[in-house]
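Regression test case RT-17, inverse folding.

Input:
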């Protein structure tokens, strides 16, 4: 019995577990010898998995065919890199990956320029379950992603650490997301009230009283205000009388996320060159956040937020950890990164859908009316069945974290993707990067039905999901802010549909999704609204 490792064959560029003749036309025997000599000993745990997941048939030559590679004959990964850059430029990376996964089955290998180890892309729930949960210890955040985030989030961030350091970050942050805070909706309510007031003002100021609004830009300001209020006890107040440095903070934050996304996606190449602009943004943002930390530390009794008894302030909880200012600053910027654009993304896409689906608007408004209360509690929002279906559906079709990545920290096994039918386990060498795309998985017709690409909240009536539905990720690194985000988004939608009875699309261009760290809408979300 021979198991061949998952390095690309030097001649054919094929990768996979294989026995028997190499498929390359030229240099066949030589390349095969070379590959076979490199056979790594299969780790004991991998052997256990293989035995459990497959059968002895796995070792038969017929099933040991290489897993698909894409594109073919791309040993160095240059074609893949160029394709990625081109697709990103055309805002079509998700669609390109979807087509590749459709063409190759649900898992394929590709070269990663300029590395030797191949990468894997998968939209197979079993593989994702292994990566995020059952074989969690075998995978970590990839080095390239950590390096891209470091200049902005720092080395203590939950998004730049693995292993014990990550556990420590999570242990510090977790208690701050307690039930009391989640159910304290007053903070969000203040900022959504300002948003509604701004919409009324814009309508009144427009010539025909029917102003065109870019809800994406408005949601972004609102979430910046509400998350800063939640974190520091003081809002950036971009929707009100913000000081100039709040605007600068917002702008630098946007620019930094854009740069980080490019660096993470294009790999090590972009890290060769330093980016003084990014360094400057980072310096400014750290100084901005540190000011709040000092403010709270320096004035424990007089600080403005403490006048508001009962108000939850994330920074207060964080300071209880006794960590240094630098660590606290890393955590604050991380929560800002985690919470702001994700929420903006879901709301923008949701209101884009609502602008072309008056039936859904009417059904949510009926549910609001049936509640019979103007001010919903957290429990009320949780129990609004249709509203929650709508949110789940928005998160399914446009998960803000549309594409995600991990890296094998030891030799391991994925349960599916090998063999002629793609159903055999595959061996994965340490250092291999794995990309999974919730955006693509959520649109699989075999998992979500023939209408998987349609926005249909009613599907959630009977749908039970596990690893095929990943808007908040899964396993030990599942989103900490999930309940907080869902409660916020439910309240914002509730309030807006209480205030406005119709939303009308005001943009003829086809919607284009832009993939950064999070998904956004390239042309924004242009609508007009009718007051209730
Ligand atoms: C609709 C809104 C949100 C979505 C879709 C979302 C999604 C995600 C996803 C997919 C991850 C996993 C990232 C990875 O491991 O690669 C994540 C992690 C995380 N999220 Fe969220 N998130 C949302 C809102 C929030 C909010 C509002 C907060 C906090 C205020 C938050 C805090 C976090 C944190 C701290 C992590 C890191 C968890 C860890 O690595 O252990 N998220 N989120």
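Golden output:
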């Amino acid at each position: 019995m021979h198991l061949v490792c998952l390095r690309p064959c030097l001649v054919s560029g094929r990768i996979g577990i294989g026995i028997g003749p190499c498929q390359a036309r030229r240099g066949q025997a030589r390349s095969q010898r070379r590959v076979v000599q490199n056979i790594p000993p299969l780790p004991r745990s991998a052997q256990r998995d293989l035995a459990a997941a497959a059968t002895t048939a796995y070792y038969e030559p017929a099933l040991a065919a290489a897993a698909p590679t894409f594109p073919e004959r791309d040993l160095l990964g240059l074609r893949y890199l160029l394709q990625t850059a081109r697709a990103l430029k055309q805002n079509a990376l998700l669609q390109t990956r979807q087509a590749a996964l459709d063409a190759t089955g649900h898992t394929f290998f590709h070269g990663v320029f300029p590395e030797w180890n191949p990468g894997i892309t998968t939209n197979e729930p079993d593989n994702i379950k292994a990566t995020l949960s059952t074989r969690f210890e075998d995978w970590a955040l990839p080095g390239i992603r950590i390096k891209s985030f470091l200049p902005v989030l720092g080395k203590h961030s939950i998004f730049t650490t693995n292993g014990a350091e990550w556990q420590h970050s999570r242990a510090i942050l977790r208690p701050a997301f307690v039930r009391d805070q989640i159910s304290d909706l007053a903070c969000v309510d203040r900022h959504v009230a300002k948003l509604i007031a701004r919409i009324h003002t814009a309508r009144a100021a427009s010539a025909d009283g029917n102003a065109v609004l870019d809800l994406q830009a408005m949601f972004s300001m609102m979430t910046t205000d509400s998350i800063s209020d939640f974190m520091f006890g003081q809002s950036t107040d971009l929707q009100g009388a913000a000081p100039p440095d709040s605007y600068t903070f917002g702008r630098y934050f946007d620019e930094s996320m854009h740069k980080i996304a490019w660096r993470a996606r294009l790999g090590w190449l972009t890290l060769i060159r330093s980016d003084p602009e990014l360094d400057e943004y980072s310096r400014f943002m750290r100084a901005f956040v540190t000011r709040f930390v000092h403010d709270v530390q320096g004035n424990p009794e007089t600080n403005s937020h403490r006048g508001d008894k009962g108000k939850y302030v994330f920074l207060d909880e964080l300071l209880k950890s006794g960590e240094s200012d630098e660590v606290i600053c890393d955590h604050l910027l991380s929560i800002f990164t985690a919470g702001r654009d994700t929420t903006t993304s879901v709301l923008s896409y949701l209101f884009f859908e609502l602008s072309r689906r008056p039936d859904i608007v009417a059904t949510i408004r009926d549910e609001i009316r049936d509640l019979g209360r103007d001010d919903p509690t957290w429990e009320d929002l949780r129990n609004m069945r249709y509203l929650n279906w709508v949110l789940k559906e928005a998160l399914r079709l446009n998960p803000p974290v549309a594409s995600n990545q991990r890296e094998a920290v030891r030799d391991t096994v994925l349960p599916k993707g090998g063999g002629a039918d793609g159903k055999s386990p595959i061996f994965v060498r340490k250092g291999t990067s794995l990309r999974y795309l919730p955006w693509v998985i959520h649109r699989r017709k075999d998992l979500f039905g023939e209408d998987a690409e349609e926005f249909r909240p009613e599907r959630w009536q009977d749908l039970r999901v596990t690893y095929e539905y990943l808007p908040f990720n899964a396993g030990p690194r599942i989103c900490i802010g999930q309940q907080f985000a869902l409660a916020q988004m439910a309240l914002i939608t509730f309030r807006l549909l209480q205030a406005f009875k119709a939303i009308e699309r005001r943009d003829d261009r086809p919607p284009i999704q832009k993939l950064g760290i999070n998904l956004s809408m390239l042309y924004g979300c242009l609508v007009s609204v009718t007051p209730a």
